[in-house]
Amino acid sequence: MTVAIDVRGEIAIVTVDNPPVNALSQTVRRALLEAAETLDAQASVSAVVLVCAGRTFIAGADVNEFGKPPEPPHLPDLVARIEGAAKPWVAAIHGSAVGGGFEVALGCRFRVAARSASLGLPEVRLGIVPGAGGTVRLPRLAGVETAVDLVTTGLPVNAPKAVEHGLIDAVIDGDLISGAMNFARAALAQPLPPPLRNRAVDCPAESYWEAAEKAVITRAGCEVAPLKALACVRKAAQFDFETAIAFERETFLALRGSAQAAALRHVFFAERAALRPPELAGVMPREIKSAAVIGGGTMGVGIAAALRDAGLPVTLVERDEPALERALANLQAICDGAVKRGRISAEIAAERMAGVTGITDYNPLMDVDLVIEAVFEDLGVKREVFQRLAGACRDDTIFATNTSYLDPERIAEGMSRPDRFLGLHFFSPAQVMKLLEVVPTKATAPDVLATGFALARRLNKIPVRAGICDGFIGNRILKVTRTQAERLLLSGATPAAVDAAMRAFGLPMGPFEAQDLGGLDIAAFQRRAARARGESPVAPIADRLCALKRFGQKSLGGWYDYEPGDRTPRPSETVAEVIAEEARGMPRHDWNEASIADCILWPMVNEGARILSDGTANKATDIDLVEIHGYGFPRWRGGLMYYAQAHGLGKVADALRDLAGKGLAGPPCDLLVEAAEQGCFPGGGNQ
Ligand code: NAI
């Protein structure tokens, strides 16, 4: 039984029980429709309370039905049936009421929710708009502005905020069912409000819509769904219910088959799969109750903040008191920033800081379950840290390194119990960026690896398993990005043109702007190390800029010039001269936005294919996730490898051959050539 009816006096309780998240499968839709019929016919019943079993209210559509033709009864008909029921329905929400789940709740005459519940219409995150009246009923319930916020961002609202905005009628503390029944009895004693379909909307002036459209375009860039969602709310505000519903349905159906929706579905499934790698099925992660971070620099402080966000007590270890003070002040600044942006309250910020212990010796680390090392990128320093840790910690404490480029196998050499050691590569700023590369060594125990994945989940991050090589997955591809960007300069493009092309493609920043932000010195250090290993990285211009001490924004000059206190990049004459000197005698090409993007992206895809063929990544979707969550690759393009597949791998291989002919890239690797014949990468997902 997915839907059960329990009549208690004049109130019927309808319980949906479809684990794990009470998704709106066809069986649930049919059973709910039948429940509405049955209860309308029962004279003794005056009101219906709709609840869900398990950990959540209806958390949306059934993902197993994604991309398949929907079978009746369709969700809009179910919502309309509940709305038109002879007895008022009260949705009693716990967990999440999202997507179709929230639309069912909007069909109910009333909504109450547990304090911890959240509600939302996240459809735009899948490249679609709500398809069962969400954009039409929401403005009739809570006004246009709230509806626009919810449907164009897809962000959830918690129950206390939902009451403030009129999305729900009451927050229930204590037992949800009895609270909802009491609410229903009280509601029956009053004149009933009309169903949402019969309520009027206050339509704002034209200037509101213009501003809303601008705001959506600024936020969503080239994503189509948010603008379409806005158009649906506008229709709902300006036209009658039936016209608006028809428009919403038409928009929903058109978007469902779009390339962006397919790409966003691909990412959605890739993210779900990333959290549960099949090779770790049945392996229990270890319990982590406390953690320590060694090194309170840029990364250590961000990692400590991420651990505190997840509620873990943190010990932060620095090498001396002044460095510790600086680190704690920077951590405080992160908390203050979160308060300022309204993300957390001042009380929570104080609680976060109270959960951090700063120390400069290793003795108090005996009880921690996990230590993450984020000291200088130097093999000797890191090894010494782990030696000291081995003396200070229990012998089952998990040790992790956040190294970017060093070989974790070498860091672990001579370590006692190397089975407890792995790489956990966070991205900067670590409290914000969602990617976590999880890097096992040959000795890492399966439950230690599983703990790395479980930690990512707890920190609300996306874990991707990466093999050991120079730069793991992400930074190895980044090196190619930078090489290509520099090759473009040597063949006639300007930094501003390259950056503009990559922004037009959908990246938040171009490669030169990003280097100026992060600092050119880190990459210069990597190149020195690579040259010492006998490699020959291509960066003649970046090398010259570093020799001129142009390290980026922090030195008021890098690829661009900067004014003090102003991050606006200004084209630099010095850089133009360096480029002209280095490019002397080299063939020049005419570049436009599209050809610049191709010259950068296809060699990145080629490197991705090499990463697949040498086993550094398990599957192409993992590379997609690395690019999206570590480097801002546009989610709506599905990730680097998906984008190439959607473009056509044969065309990508040809373009690479063409670039190779001009000396601007290497030829397609074997795996890419094979994948071009197959039409997809191994593990690349369906188109
Ligand atoms: P950083 O230079 O900002 O911080 C390093 C901190 O470690 C300093 O505060 C220093 O005082 C402290 N430290 C040095 N030796 C220590 C010791 N023996 N005991 C305790 N503390 C010690 O460096 P950053 O950028 O935070 O990088 C740290 C690690 O994270 C490096 O391995 C780096 O490659 C890696 N990483 C850096 C990223 C970035 O974007 N900056 C991104 C991902 C990884």
From TrEMBL:
The entry's keywords: Fatty acid metabolism, Isomerase, Lipid degradation, Lipid metabolism, Lyase, Multifunctional enzyme, NAD, Oxidoreductase, Peroxisome
Record GO terms (molecular function): (3S)-3-hydroxyacyl-CoA dehydrogenase (NAD+) activity
Protein name per Swiss-Prot or TrEMBL: 3-hydroxyacyl-CoA dehydrogenase
Pathway: Lipid metabolism; fatty acid beta-oxidation
Catalytic activity: a (3S)-3-hydroxyacyl-CoA + NAD(+) = a 3-oxoacyl-CoA + NADH + H(+)
Location relative to the cell: Peroxisome
Domain 3-hydroxyacyl-CoA dehydrogenase C-terminal: 471-562
Organism: Sinorhizobium kostiense
Keyword Lipid metabolism: yes
Keyword Signal: no
Record domain 3-hydroxyacyl-CoA dehydrogenase NAD binding: where: 291-466
Enzyme Commission code: 1.1.1.35
Principal subcellular localization: other
InterPro entries named among the record's database cross-references: 3-OHacyl-CoA_DH_NAD-bd, 3HC_DH_C, 6-PGluconate_DH-like_C_sf, ClpP/crotonase-like_dom_sf, Enoyl-CoA_hydra/iso, NAD(P)-bd_dom_sf
Top-level taxonomy: Bacteria, Pseudomonadati, Pseudomonadota, Alphaproteobacteria, Hyphomicrobiales
